[in-house]
Design goal:
- This protein is α+β, with helices and mostly antiparallel strands.
- The protein has 2 domains: about 5-55, no CATH class; about 60-250, no CATH class.
- It is built from 8 helices and 10 strands.
- It has helices spanning about 5-20, 20-60, 85-90, 125-130, 155-160, 195-200, 210-215, 235-240, and strands at about 65, 95-110, 115-125, 140, 150-155, 170-175, 180-190, 205, 225-230, 250.
- It has a 6-stranded mixed β-barrel.
- The longest helix has about 40 residues, at about 20-60.
- The model has no long low-confidence stretch (mean pLDDT about 85).
Amino acid sequence: MQIPVKAMSKLAWRNLWRNYRRTLIMLLAIAVGAWAMIFMTSLLRGMVDDMVKQGIRALPGHVQVHTAAYRDDPSVNHGLPAPDEALLEVLGGEQVQAWTSRLKVPAMISSEYENRGVLLLGVDPAGETELGFDDGDIVEGRFLEGADDPGIVIGRKLLQRLETRLGKRVVVMSQDPDNAVADRGFKVVGVFQAELESREESIVYAGREVIQRMLGVGSDISEVAVLGRDYKLPEPLAASIRAAVPADVEVLS
């Protein structure tokens, strides 16, 4: 024998309110559970979004421009000429939030007591801070003041490894286009902190023009890093940049 739906609904409704306290507690538990699930989902999405943005701003940007051979052999022999008018026009467009050019090569840094392998970044400080370097991460001294600044900025962990301190001199060595050793002395003018100790230990910043002279590469750079308006939609920006550079230049998004 089947009970009509209308009668079943009435019985269910009466049963719910036979013990109204129990029903209210159940409704409250469901509401709190649903709210907590929505809150946690939103929180996790926000955290992931923030982590992605911080990771992108840490160095790579949304789009990177370099020669096709650079990723396999990141030496000065696989550099780029400085951006020309066609590329500068795209970089100055509405799609671009910030951009910078870097000379980026493997190097050795030495103090009086220790030496370490690092990634040497020859940068334009103005572009680097727009792209993502936070001056608030400087815990001692200052950041670079220009592309021709003769100082060097290193990570807190690297400072400890080298057993040196702010104001002391270090020597940086790398290879020039003829594979000869190129070296230069730098005064430590700033110390930065990072969320990852590996970043503090492996990256150093120097003025781009100073490193270009040290390596004898003229105005050549290693890459152009570009920050767009939306990290979720980098391809339209990458396509615009591809149209403005030679075919042998790689544009990654």
